[in-house]
Amino acid sequence: MSQESIRVPAxxxxxxxxxxxxxxxxxxxxxxxxMQVKLTAPLPQGIVSVSGSLGLVLQTSPIFYSGQPSEAQLxxxxxxxxxxxxxxxxxxxxxxxxxAFTVSPTRQAPSYVPLRPSLQGTSIGEAGALMMxxxxxxxxxxxxxxxxxxxxxxIVNLVGTRNGAALAFxxxxxxNGDIIVPLxxxxxxxxxxxxxxxxxxxxxxxxQSGLSIGNPDAxxxxxxxxxxxxxxxxxxxIQRGGIITPATLAIPGFTLQAx
Length: 259
Description:
- The protein is mainly beta and 259 residues long.
- Helices cover 3% and strands 42% of the residues.
- The protein has helices at residues 71-74, 246-249, and strands at residues 5-7, 10-19, 25-26, 35-39, 47-51, 55-60, 63-65, 85-91, 99-103, 111-115, 128-137, 155-162, 165-172, 178-182, 196-204, 220-222, 224-225, 234-238, 242-244, 254-257.
């Protein structure tokens, strides 16, 4: 009987990660999320995806050898044309927001899809959090859909400094525009200081309003108002240690300006 070998070369790997406030990402803490993945575009012929708790593995068609493959054969996988993987990731345990994604895997390095904690999966520590609801307001001369018009899946970033140290916090709205920005890592105030001055910016996309799954990669910087004029950034006076809302900030709310 002659010996045969089968090899299934990898075409790439896609891992889930957790988004940071500075735009980077990190490994997900704790158990990996239970994830339902649906591809929204066909893969190239000869490539299949295998879904797991950590992400996706992309594999090419099996290679058959009449005997044991040599080291040279193992070191020289078949050439692979560039391709993309598009799909949706729906965390079944509710810890993260669902999202659409498009990545271009390679054999040389893994690809990553950053996830953002859902309201359910957001932890509020002793430093407190900012809680709000985001709504779109049409620009002058444009037409808005019937009210309400939630700023679904928008991202809020807060940055500042304390004693020369950079501070950064972030959160993503759900489909209803509700959002929690935890202030985790904000140190206690010195005796001579009563609040922190933080600069707020927002990313949004009015076409995603009401969609069951958003796409963070399609968001762009938007102007918004906290009661007066619209601007690309606003300054908030944040007091550590409580649940901060528009009422505690003495503002009517947060409104994003649609184009």
